[in-house]
Structure formats: structure tokens, C-alpha cells
Amino acid sequence: MNEVPIEAFTTEDGRQIGGVLMEMRHITLRFGGVTAIQDISFDIREGEVRAIIGPNGAGKSSMLNVINGFYHPQEGEIWFRGEKRPTMKPYDVAKQGIARTFQNIALFKGMSTLDNIMTGRNTMMKAGLFSQALWWGKAEQEEMWHREQVEKVIDFLEIQHIRKTPVGKLPYGLQKRVELGRALAAEPKLLLLDEPMAGMNVEEKEDMSRFILDVNDEFGTTIALIEHDMGVVMDISDRVVVMDYGKKIGDGTPDEVRNNPDVIDAYLGVAHD
């Protein structure tokens, strides 16, 4: 088995980031005659916050869908924890320790906050369907254990006051926090966030940024996120990869990316001599 590289990466604020956790090698994804991703390579290192940015239609969400197994690229390889990953379904990817949130909130609107977050523990539950239905014996003990873990997530995200509230009755910002909680409940090694700040006001963005940084700092969770708010990206990311029309046009620290002429062109539509 190939070992995960152990060389460290030093962030702009002096933090040490670990070796490569996931590597995308020459990924190409096509839908019929349309190329959504063209020969893109980049890595995600253990313990970092890795941003994937680009204008609308750049292929960012498609890349996230490749990472979590929803799309399967026609070309390229995905390496995770030092091993080449075979073609996998999202459920199997989740069992590997990769969890995600979605651009459009994907919660069970009639269920409570607690029950929605409980669904994030599904891949860890071992009791059979019959035992779970009867809520007896090992199934009862197992569910009680998982509920304890979910309560810890609820406390961490400061949403105790809505634990029994149906999520369909919650404001948008709190629904986003519940969705983050469901992903955290899976105890992921790699957390994928698809536009976690979309539709939020300034205060809600500040709260979500704080929770993302706390997840990274306190749990050591590696995070890869798509986000359009460049202020947020530059504030919370260790490294940034930039896509435009399915191609990679930039990759580096926030300072390196913000000063990259190709990135400036893509966002501002200006040419340089």
C-alpha cells in the first residue's frame, strides 16, 4: 500500500498542515459533448481548509460531486489516504469518511433538528432494520449512544433551543447550521461544504465562518469548500484552487491567488498586457 506523504505545509499564519489526504489527478468529466472539468489536478492536505472557487459555471459543484462519488469522471484518478479509489457510490464514499452539505438545503423539513442530525449517523449503525423498528436490545442501546453523540454536535453548534423544532419552520441560516450538524454527525475525515454561506446575511456568515474554523481547529477536520464570497474565502482558507470554464487557472495561498493575473481576469473580465 502507498503511504500518505508526511511532508508538512506551512500556512500564511504559520500553522502546520499535514500530508496529502486526497489527490485529484488529471480529472476530466464530460456530459455528452460538454466538458465540465478538463484535466484538473490538485490535492487536499490533512487539517487544512481548502477552497474551490470560480465564476458561475466553472465546474466547482461538479468537482465536489466527483469527490463524493455522485459523478464518475471519464478520465483521471482519485487517491484517498494513499490509495487509488475505485469507482464508488456516494454511500460507500460516506463510509470512507467523506461527508458533505449541499448548495440547496437538503433536509427533511417535517423532522426535528435532532432527528435530521441523527440521519448523519446512518453509516455507523449496525443493528438490523427489524431490531431498529422494534427499538429493542442492541438496537436500543446503539440508538441511545448515537443520540448522545448528536447532542454533542447540537451543543457545539449552539442550537439546543431548536433541537425539537421541525427544520421546515426554521429560518434559512439555522437550517444551514442544521445541515452542517448532520454532516458533522458522520464524524468525517473530509468535510465538503457546497456554498455554506449562500443566501446568508452578514451576521449569519460570521457565525458560519466561526463554526467552520472551530470544526477545523477543535476536531482537526479537513474541509474543502465552495464559496462565492471572496472575503470569506480569503479569511478562512489555507489554500485556494481556482476553476474557470472547467479548467484550473490558479492554485496556492490566498495571497498568491488574489494576485494571480488569470484569476483577476476571470473575476473582473479585464485583460493584462
In oligomeric terms, what are we looking at? single chain
| Percentage of residues in strands | 15-25%
Strand order of the largest sheet: 8-9-10-5-11-12
Shape: globular
* CATH homology group of the largest domain: P-loop containing nucleotide triphosphate hydrolases
Question: What portion of residues is helical?
Answer: 25-40%
How can the largest sheet be summarized?
6 strands, mixed
Structural class: alpha/beta
**CATH fold type of the largest domain:** Rossmann fold
Output the number of helix runs.
10
Mean pLDDT: 87
Overall CATH architecture of the largest domain? 3-Layer(aba) Sandwich
Distance between the termini: 48 Å
The helix/strand series, from N terminus to C terminus, equals: EEEEEHEEHEHHHHEHEHEEHH
